[in-house]
């Protein structure tokens, strides 16, 4: 007995309301359909259908079996679709929503290398500083892990990072390098501040010492609610900034910025990719997400090796 075929035939008999209708849809003979359902009942040792001359109905066992069966057959079909999609030519459009700083420093640098691998995949990048993203409208939504997402979204971590202190070589030549957290009080600091809030004492964390924490009142010569603006000011030599290590990895490697006060950090950051609530995704979307994860983590690994 082909058990999988018997299961599919049983489902079609119920959905089509009879053996003859199922046979027409499946392009089988009515006798073959009847035999396959009988073989399934014999294998299970239970009657699934009540047959009369006027109507067909499920037995209680048949109803319970069909409820489980539908999910199983759906999973099998979706597994087949995933494999088949991987074997097809990679083409089509991937619609991506990203926050501005993520689009500029994470996605944009990866595009050229991705398109060399998959030249027929088109990226449609939507850049918004979203608070409540509509995940269903995009193939991928890439945001800070602190952004709330709908419960139905499928979430994958792109990278985990740390908020680190950094400054330009020119600034450090003029003002010297802080050696201890308290030294920040004597430096020109650039700080992120959400609108409608005020600056508080900064919590510094030492990951090398069981996350020991201290608080320091750090004055700011510049505050902004925009990470990228603070980064540009830091590069130009305006002062000591705090930035996600994954965003500034290329600048640290190139010597445009220099990390200071290591190993102290001000927090941990997670970048995530959210997908609509479906069990599989197109091959082009999976390829871009896998590439972005590998590209970003390789950039961070290269930075760690270079230290």
Automatic annotation (TrEMBL):
Coiled coil: none annotated. Keywords: DNA-binding, Transcription, Transcription regulation. One of its GO terms (molecular function) is DNA-binding transcription factor activity. Pfam families: HTH_1, LysR_substrate. InterPro entries: LysR-type_TF_proteobact-type, LysR_HTH_N, LysR_subst-bd, WH-like_DNA-bd_sf, WH_DNA-bd_sf. The keyword NADP does not apply. Residues 1-59 form the HTH lysR-type domain. The keyword NADP does not apply. Belongs to the LysR transcriptional regulatory family. This is LysR family transcriptional regulator. It comes from Ramlibacter cellulosilyticus.
């Amino acid at each position: 007995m082909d058990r999988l075929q018997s299961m599919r035939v049983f489902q079609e008999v119920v959905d089509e309301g009879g053996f003859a209708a199922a046979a027409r849809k499946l392009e089988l003979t009515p006798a073959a359909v009847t035999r396959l359902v009988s073989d399934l009942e014999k294998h299970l040792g239970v009657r699934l259908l009540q047959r009369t001359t006027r109507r067909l109905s499920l037995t209680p066992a048949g109803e319970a079996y069909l409820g489980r069966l539908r999910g199983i057959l759906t999973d099998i079909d979706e597994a087949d679709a995933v494999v088949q999609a991987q074997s097809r030519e990679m083409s089509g459009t991937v619609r991506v929503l990203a926050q501005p700083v993520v689009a500029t420093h994470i996605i944009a640098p990866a595009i050229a290398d991705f398109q060399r691998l998959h030249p027929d995949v088109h990226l449609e990048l939507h850049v918004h500083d979203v608070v409540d993203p509509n995940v269903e409208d995009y193939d991928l939504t890439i945001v800070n892990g602190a952004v709330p997402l709908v419960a139905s979204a499928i979430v994958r971590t792109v990278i985990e990072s740390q908020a680190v202190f950094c400054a330009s070589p020119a600034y450090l030549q003029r003002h010297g390098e802080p050696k201890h957290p308290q030294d920040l009080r004597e430096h020109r600091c650039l700080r992120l501040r959400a609108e409608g809030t005020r600056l508080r004492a900064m919590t510094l964390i030492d990951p090398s010492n069981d996350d020991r924490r201290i608080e320091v009142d750090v004055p700011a010569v510049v505050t902004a609610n925009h990470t990228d603006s603070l980064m540009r000011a830091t590069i130009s030599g305006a002062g000591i900034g705090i930035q996600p290590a994954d965003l500034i990895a290329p600048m640290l490697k190139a010597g445009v910025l220099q990390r200071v006060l290591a190993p102290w950090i001000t927090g941990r950051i997670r970048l995530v990719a959210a997908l609509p609530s479906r069990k599989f995704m197109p091959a082009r979307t999976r390829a871009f997400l896998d590439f972005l994860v590998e590209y970003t983590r390789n950039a961070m690994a290269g930075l760690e090796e270079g230290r």
